[in-house]
Amino acid sequence: MSGTVSRSANRAGETPAEDAAQLPAEAGEVLSTLETLIRRINRTDATVEMGPDGTLTDALARRDVLRLRHSVVTAAAGSGERGYGRQLRSELMMLSALPVAELRGQADVLAREIREVDVRIQRTNWEVDLLD
Question: Considering the entire predicted model, what is its pTM?
Answer without folding.
Answer: 0.70
